[in-house]
Amino acid sequence: MFQVAVARVLAVGGRVRRLSVGLRCPVDGAPLLHLDNVRVVATTGEDEARRGD
Length: 53
What we know:
There is one protein chain. The chain has a three-stranded antiparallel sheet with strand order 1-2-3, with no helix packed on it. The N and C termini lie far apart (41 Å). By secondary structure, it is mainly β. 13% of the residues lie in helices and 49% in strands.
């Protein structure tokens, strides 16, 4: 079992734009995964059409 922390930044319309995640071992406190302020890119066809992809 791990301790998890998640933070997100939402754009207008409620879509996730940025994400931070941390996993930590509760036994020794060692961080196992840390993602900080990662950009989230939408993958819907509507978003691709808007960007011109």
